[in-house]
Design brief:
Layout (H helix, E strand, L loop, with lengths): L11 H14 E2 L1 H10 L5 E5 L3 H6 E2 L4 E2 L16 E5 L7 H11 L3 E5 L2 H7 L5 E2 L15
Parallel strand pairs: 1-6, 2-4, 2-5, 5-6
Antiparallel strand pairs: 3-7
């Protein structure tokens, strides 16, 4: 038996339920970029959950900065929008922590798969300020 098939697969209905649930929690950078290119990001806001210093250094265009470490209990956000949280990369969980904090405050959330690192590696634009040449590290979290 191969390593890949050592454990039995789920039946198709269970697999469909699982993958639909997974997509309810994540947004794909390609989909977000396509929305931006089409000029249609109605219904959601990108939320950078890293520290303000990281946000100042590089951010996805149109994102707002709500560092997960500093989220107040009361936020003045539109409850009808979905807040798509992102951080540095798959190795960072600041987006998960930010999404959790927003969900606990009653907001609908998703996480951007791969964070700003995946966004940049796909060749999508970032807004840079301060030290534009420094970019975003693929190692350090900057949270």
């Amino acid at each position: 038996m191969t390593n890949a098939l050592r454990f039995p697969t789920a039946d198709p209905a269970t697999a469909a339920t699982f993958f639909a649930a997974e997509l309810a929690f994540e947004a794909d950078p390609d989909d977000v970029h396509r929305d931006m290119q089409a000029g249609d990001t109605r219904g959601y806001v990108l939320v950078e959950t890293r520290a303000p210093e990281a946000f100042a250094q590089a951010r996805i265009p149109g994102a707002i900065n709500l560092p997960y470490r500093d989220l107040p209990e009361q936020l003045d956000l539109d409850p009808d929008l979905v807040y798509i949280c992102y951080c540095e990369s798959f190795q960072c969980n600041a987006a998960t922590k930010g999404a959790l904090a927003l969900a606990q405050r009653g907001y609908r959330v998703k996480r951007l798969a791969g964070g700003i690192t995946a966004w940049r590696e796909a060749g999508y634009p970032v807004e840079e300020g301060g030290h534009a040449a420094a970019g975003v590290s693929k190692v350090a979290c900057h949270c």
